[in-house]
Design brief:
The protein has three helices and two strands; from the N terminus they run βααβα. With 99 residues, it is α+β, with helices and mostly antiparallel strands. 23% of the residues lie in helices and 8% in strands.
Length: 99
């Protein structure tokens, strides 16, 4: 049986002896989200922004979950000049079960 850690985008996927269907973490816009214009430093590097904002590179998928209408491809659409919503550190910790 697969065991997914709290940082995994698969943490809501049913755990069985076979690979089950992916169940994404549900994220909706919130009042404490900030709008962020991606600078050249993070062009196609969402993991670098996740490391700076959340202290954990593995949380880069959070940006794609909250910005599905903008980031169709979570890597190649993460371009300089694109404005995305960035959830607060506290909100992400609640979602992943970290506090």
């Amino acid at each position: 049986m697969a065991e997914y850690n709290r940082y995994s985008p698969y943490k809501n996927t049913p755990r069985t002896w076979y690979l089950d269907r992916y169940v994404p973490i549900t994220m909706y816009p919130a009042s404490d989200d900030s709008f962020y214009t991606i600078p050249s430093k993070y062009h196609q590097k969402p993991w670098m922004l996740a490391k700076e904002v959340y202290g954990e590179e593995r949380l880069h998928y959070i940006f794609a979950l909250l910005n599905m209408d903008i980031l169709k491809d979570p890597l190649y659409d993460f371009r300089e000049g694109v404005v995305i919503r960035v959830p607060s550190y506290e909100r992400v910790q609640r979602i992943i079960g970290g506090g």
